[in-house]
Write a structure and sequence with these properties.
Elements (H helix, E strand, L loop, with lengths): L16 H17 L3 E4 L2 E4 L13 H14 L5 E4 L12 E3 L8 E2 L12 E7 L16 H13 E12 L4 H8 L7 E7 L6 E4 L1 H4 L4 E2 L2 E2 L1 E8 L1
Parallel strand pairs: 3-4, 3-6, 4-5, 6-7
Antiparallel strand pairs: 1-2, 7-12, 8-9, 8-12, 10-11
């Protein structure tokens, strides 16, 4: 089954017809009047306009198109997603581990305890790893590194790839790793929000190091890659 955007579906079950219509009209008008695409790693992508999380206002507008393209290029492979994110925007056909979100097919388990019977060719995670250890009690900042090491050493197949996104400015432990040149990734890319209209451009760490995490929106993200 192909992956397809659904721009019109809405997950708010109790929303009135008039409220739904207004939200749809506002989203459509916004889409018409804004720049349609952004560039990442030499490729042009369309910004995503979707009701879920109002993607035209935040980083989901660029994360989902990038990761959707990765899915399309690896459909025949064994894929694991950490954090149940993509299923809110596109049909998925891969395994998902999410400690907290209960949904059909989602494995509710702490990622550092997840032990797959078969390793994965591709592991994806969209703005989830920054919460590991950071938003848990007691707080264990270094658990982020433990989770990444576990994905690499226990879950990734030889020759496989891990691709994840994390916001800059949310988890100060992760920001410190980037600042000190101790990134856990073999490759990393940065995208920076440069407008209240939610326009994003490619950048580097120096261009993003002072980014703050706003109210429900990142102003910069890191896309990290580990090649197995």
């Amino acid at each position: 089954m192909p992956y397809t955007y659904d721009y019109t579906s809405v997950a708010s079950g109790n929303e009135s017809a008039s409220a739904h219509y207004w939200r749809f009209a506002k989203m459509t008008l916004t889409r018409w009047t804004r720049v349609k695409t952004f560039v990442f790693d030499g490729r042009s992508y369309p910004y995503l306009y979707h009701f879920c999380n109002k993607t035209w206002k935040n980083e989901r507008g660029i994360e989902i198109p990038i990761f959707r393209e990765i899915l399309l290029r690896h459909q025949a492979m064994r894929i694991l997603e950490l954090g149940n994110v993509l299923a809110h925007y596109v049909p998925i056909h891969h395994d998902v581990v999410d400690k907290y979100e209960v949904a059909p097919g989602v494995i509710n388990q702490d990622i550092v305890e997840f032990a797959p019977t078969q390793r994965y060719d591709l592991i994806l995670s969209i703005s989830t790893l920054e919460h590991v250890g950071w938003d848990e009690e007691p707080r264990e900042p270094a658990k982020l590194l433990q989770a990444i090491e576990h994905l690499r050493d226990r879950c990734l197949a030889p020759g496989g790839q891990i691709v994840v996104s994390l916001p800059v400015g949310y988890n100060t432990f992760f920001d410190g790793l980037l600042r000190d040149g101790k990134s856990p990734f073999t490759q990393q890319h940065f995208l920076k929000r440069v407008s209240k209209r939610n326009y994003w451009v490619e950048s580097d760490w120096n261009g993003c190091k002072d980014a703050t995490y706003g109210r429900f929106v990142a102003h910069a993200i890191c896309i990290g890659i580990i090649q197995g």
